[in-house]
Amino acid sequence: MPIMTGLSGNEIFCLGLKNLSPGELVVGNSVHSLGFLGGLGAGLRGIVGGEVAQVTEIIREGRTQSHARIMQEAKEFGARGVTGVTSELRHMQGNVEFLSVGSCVHGPDTSARPFSSSSNGQELFSLIDAGYTPKQFVIGNVAYSVGVAGGLFGALKSLGRGEIKEFSDVFNATRHLALRRISAEARAAGANAVIGIETRIMPFRGVHEMLMLGTAAYHPALGPAPQGATVPAHAPQDLVTSDLTCEEMWNLASIGYMPLKLVLGTAVYSLGLVGGVMAMFKGMARGEISELSSLIYEAREHAIGLIRDEAQAIGADDVVGITTHIHELGGLIEFMAIGTAVKRRPGATPATATLPVQAIIRDKDTWISGDDLFAAAVKSGGGGGGGD
User: Fold this and answer.
1) Are 123 and 251 in contact (CB under 8 A)?
2) What is the pLDDT of residues 60-112, one digit of tens each?
3) pLDDT tens digits along 291-320
4) Which residue among 125, 247, 348, 381 is least packed, with the fewest CB closer than 10 Å?
């Protein structure tokens, strides 16, 4: 019987270098309803602002159940592990479907508990070759609201120019809480690192979900895995976290560096009522809008300064892969900086002298929908509207 797999030719080649072979596509889902009580609780919590715990738990439960079902399928197939694991949610007739998909891999040591990983086959090769043993696909999520009270207070302060600290505090707290939760799940799986963290922010029933996905892994050079899954809100980070791709991490390991911690900082700013009016009038004429230029520069520098302070506090040598993101929040502007703090460590050298070409080739999409074509045309400037 033919194997039905989601792995590409490049992924299969790379996995073969680690004595792993392609296996079956596995799918798990779980359909949930928020219910009257959950919706009511979320509404009441939203008045105050911060985490909406009822919604966090419903989403986490759905994601966990769908993942457990693909792992049960993998066990029935006798798989060594599941790679390329995804965790999605879809709204369906007033309910929410949580969907997990991945591809089994087969190999030696089938008596061990199957691992799961968010890494695709190429990334999994890089992860293993850099000395990491994959343990489990892990998530950390927080459903949150800025709240009516926080929104009102922030709106009053937005009459003046500068940072709206109430909003900055909410966003910083939710991002670091999600990081602590993904770390706690990795710790419970016997890992000492969370690799390849992907961060998403998505709307969900009147609130937002801050979601982090990654692979819990163990590397002997990082020391014993921390014990205990429960982490107090004030606890320091005690295991490695990184949003570097596995290929980037392999390259850094080849020159002696390993990740320490995912560092992130958020600052929410307002141009202010007076500044906004001035910018509006200046925008009618050609030239620089200095109020906006200085505000955006100041806010971006503040966000980068937050991650610089965090990296210095943990003794990092450098912060690499820094990206900055800007989101508009109803007249306010959120600036976020994110990167991975790294440090030179003994024992970081990968097993292979060079990455194979197949590990860095990006597979080309061969199914293109109408929406994809339109987006591509707009991005290239080739469509999407009338002339001047």
Assistant:
1) no
2) 999 999 999 999 999 999 999 999 999 998 887 778 899 999 999 999 876 67
3) 777 878 888 899 999 999 999 999 999 999
4) 381
CA atoms lying within 13 Å on the CB side of residue 5: 25
Residue type, 81: G
Among 236, 226, 239, 140, residue whose Cα is nearest residue 188: 226
With b for 16 or more beta-carbon neighbours within 10 A and e for fewer, the 8-39 pattern comes to: bebbbbbbeeeebebbbbbebbbebebeeebb
What the block records as the tokens of 77 is: 């197939």
258 and 252 in contact (C-beta within 8 Å)? Answer: yes
Tell me if 189 sits within 8 A of 136, measured CB to CB.
Answer: yes
Q: Are 271 and 292 in contact (CB under 8 A)?
A: yes
DSSP assignment, residue 235? P
The DSSP annotation for 186-229 comes to HHHTT-SEEEEEEEEEEEETTEEEEEEEEEEEE-GGG-SPPP-S
- The yes-or-no verdict on residue 18 having pLDDT over 60 is yes
pTM of the model: 0.84
CA dist 207 and 39 (Å) reads 11
Residues 150, 170: contact at Cβ < 8 Å?
A: yes
